[in-house]
Design brief:
By secondary structure, the chain is of the alpha/beta class. It contains 28 helices and 11 strands. It has 3 domains: 168 residues, Rossmann fold; 198 residues, no CATH class; 185 residues, no CATH class. A hairpin with a 2-residue loop joins strand 3 and strand 4.
């Protein structure tokens, strides 16, 4: 069997850690969660040679081992627990050439833990352009480690890195600093009290208990009773440790690193002056959003039409090929239309993730966070709240998990409560199909489509609602203090194609698989409820023929009336008719009401639900869009999906909390059902009122 090595990837944010992970593992990776918590766990496999296979764990970004968030604490827990199955045989610390001083703080701490550590210096291709020279051999000698100069962009240095990983057992375990220099007397007492323990590991266990005293932690036996120093003094000693380490790092880099600033060709400052300008920065950001939403509609129309027609043909093929019966109807009227309701939006969701990945890879997203911080502070949010709100455009679940970086509990709570207002990708299928039905295809200034502008307005409304809700909650919860906002501005760079492709594939796959499971299950349940019923359902044909005996209808017209009668008297029809009085003031019929209820499992289920309901008992195989466009309001005789009902639906989905998974995450993050239930009822009530007003005005 091939030898297996556990490799931990560590590093500060924005050093290219994810790029290194992608280069080493390619698509041979999986994403899950750490046991018991919702922090994302990325693992991959890299074959070093025929006899060695590396299991690579991409740990959350951290600036040091003095944790200030739960994500960073997770890193420390792993590095202190040798019994953990993921405990690394070797740690790879990713740094980048322009921020080597700050990156080395983490490296020296990890090396002092006695873990074999390799220092990887990324973006080495910039050294010439930035007029940077580095004496690698001298730096290796002083730090007593091995260094790999790499460039993720140009795929340089990775073979050398793999060789270093293979030979990790040859790395020196000598620490960079003697831990006792932090506080000689205190460490002397520690040594006497715990003679068999590594002093620096012991120090981290004690000081991290200071930061996370309320957590259930696995600590070394007897440490809890060693409480000689006060908490305030331990924090002072932590600060002293950081100062001592930076003194060591300054001395090392003074001998090995040279930067000729006069000959550097740096465009970063020029770009920042424009992109973070207090006026033009917002104009540019708005223009970029406009281009993104315009492209989502224009570029994806062809693959969407192909997918829609393909599923319609597939449904027809199954209906004509399989023997008549319940199984054939389940496949052609339930499963396929339900899956079509999610598959049709794969192109647009992929384009959305594509643009988000490009913005993140280029370094522009950090500028957006900086820009929006100016607005956030006026509404009682931490600047760090911007990250979850922006992440919420993809999915509220990881966005809510990202609030763990907000130290102040009440600020974090407000961010958790308002994040679901931001328009996530699950809302996108609903928006896209309704906009396509009720908004004309005209253009403004001959360039921007009305449909793309409408989508931009909906995203803006969602973000505006989040800000307004945060302002109200800030006043209601009376937050006593604010945390400081610090963000690192990474260098601008051309997005790496491999990283973008992997990100788009993984996130689109996660969306489709996650939504597909729910939709498939709900489609089967809905088909069963729509295909069976009590009483008149079983004698539908006799009743309809008796009612139409004098109307001189064709065979097809009679069959259509029978199918409609059976649907209304099925189990799902009875439920729908029961809730119809509640949704009728919003401009919806009972079928839309059923779709609303079922979409509380997941917003994107709405389209799949309607596709299933419209397909049951219907021999005319059409695309989803055509089926919805053909629906007629029996009272007015006009199309059911018109401007008034369409805008009402769009606004309802803009504000309603319709995602059980998000509620579950909120419950886990707040450790209470109080807040998710408050979200569910308050957001849904607000959505109902807004949709009601919109319909009554526009009808």
């Amino acid at each position: 069997m091939a030898k297996q090595i556990n490799v931990a990837l560590l590093g500060n944010p924005n050093t290219g850690k994810t790029s290194v992970f992608n280069r080493l593992t390619g698509l041979n990776q999986k994403v899950g969660n750490y046991p018991g918590i919702t922090v994302e766990k990325k693992q991959g496999i890299c074959k070093l040679d025929r006899n060695i296979k590396a299991f690579i764990l991409d740990l959350p970004g951290t600036y040091s081992l003095n944790a200030s968030s739960i994500d960073e604490n997770l890193v420390i827990e792993l590095l202190l627990n040798k019994n953990d199955k993921d405990f690394p045989d070797v740690a790879i610390v990713i740094s980048e050439i322009e921020n080597l001083k700050r990156n080395l703080l983490l490296f020296t701490q990890i090396k002092d833990l006695g873990i074999p550590a390799i220092l990887v210096i990324n973006m080495s291709d910039r050294m010439k352009r930035k007029a940077i020279s580095l004496d690698v051999e001298l730096l290796e000698s002083i730090l007593e480690t091995k260094i790999a100069l790499i460039s993720c962009r140009k795929n340089l240095g990775f073979e050398e890195l793999k060789e270093l990983i293979s030979n990790y057992n040859q790395l020196s375990l000598k620490p960079c600093l003697d831990a006792s220099v932090i506080a000689p007397e205190y460490f002397d007492r520690l040594r006497k009290a715990f003679p068999n323990q590594d002093l620096y590991k012991l120090w981290l266990v004690i000081t991290q208990d200071v930061n996370f005293g309320k957590l259930d932690r696995k600590v070394l036996k007897g440490v809890a009773s060693f409480q000689i120093e006060s908490i305030s003094n331990l924090k002072r000693l932590q600060q002293k440790e950081t100062i001592i380490r930076y003194q060591f790092i300054n001395n090392v880099l003074g001998k090995t690193l040279k930067i000729d600033t006069e000959n550097a060709k740096d465009l970063r400052s020029r770009f920042d002056r424009v992109l973070t300008h207090k006026f033009w920065g917002y104009v540019i950001f708005f223009a970029i959003l406009l281009v993104i939403f315009q492209s989502i509609f224009d570029w994806s129309s062809y693959p969407m039409n192909f997918i829609d027609n393909s599923f319609a043909s597939l449904s027809k093929w199954f209906k004509t090929t399989l023997p008549p019966g319940d199984f054939s109807n389940l496949i052609s009227e339930g499963v396929i239309p339900g899956l079509a309701g999610i598959a049709i939006f794969i192109p647009q969701i992929a384009f959305l993730f594509l643009f988000i990945s490009i913005l993140e890879e280029s370094g522009y997203m950090s500028r957006v966070v900086f820009l929006m911080d100016r607005i956030m502070r006026k509404f009682g949010l931490s600047g760090k709240s911007v990250v979850p709100l922006i992440a919420g455009t993809a999915c509220a679940i990881p966005a809510i998990m990202a609030t763990r970086n907000i130290e102040n509990w009440k600020e974090r709570l407000i961010t958790i409560l308002v994040t679901p207002f931001t328009t996530c990708s699950a809302r996108l299928p609903v928006y896209l199909i309704i906009i396509a039905l009720v908004i004309p295809e005209g253009r403004v200034l001959g360039v921007f489509s009305l449909q793309g502008l409408t989508l931009l307005v909906l995203y803006s409304i969602g973000f505006g609602a989040a800000i307004l809700a945060a302002y109200i909650l800030d006043k209601f919860l009376d937050i006593p203090s604010k945390s400081f906002f610090v963000i690192e501005m990474p260098n601008y760079k051309l997005p790496m194609l491999k990283n973008v492709v992997i990100n788009v594939i993984e996130k689109t796959k996660a969306f489709v698989v996650g939504a597909g499971k729910i939709i498939l299950a709900i489609s089967i349940i809905l088909w069963v409820l729509a295909s069976y019923g009590p009483g008149d359902f079983n004698t539908a044909e006799e009743i309809v023929r008796q009612q139409t005996i004098s109307q001189n209808l064709t065979k097809d017209e009679i069959e259509t009336k029978i199918a409609s009668f059976k649907l209304e008297h099925s189990y799902i029809g009875i439920v729908g008719k029961g809730i119809e009085p509640a949704v009728k003031p919003l401009g919806y019929d009972w079928k839309i009401g059923i779709a609303l209820i079922s979409s509380f499992a997941a917003r994107e289920v709405f389209v799949g639900t309607l596709a299933t309901i419209y397909s049951v008992g219907n021999d005319d195989v059409e695309t989803i869009k055509n089926k919805m466009a053909a629906e007629i309001n029996p009272v007015s005789g006009e199309p059911l999906f018109n401007l008034a009902s369409g805008v009402s639906l769009l606004l309802f989905y803009a504000f309603a909390m319709q995602c059980m998974s998000t509620l579950a995450i909120v419950k886990r993050e707040t450790n209470s059902w109080k807040w998710p239930l408050w979200q569910l009822f308050s957001m849904s009530a607000f959505a109902y009122v807004v949709a009601l007003i919109a319909y009554q005005i526009l009808k």
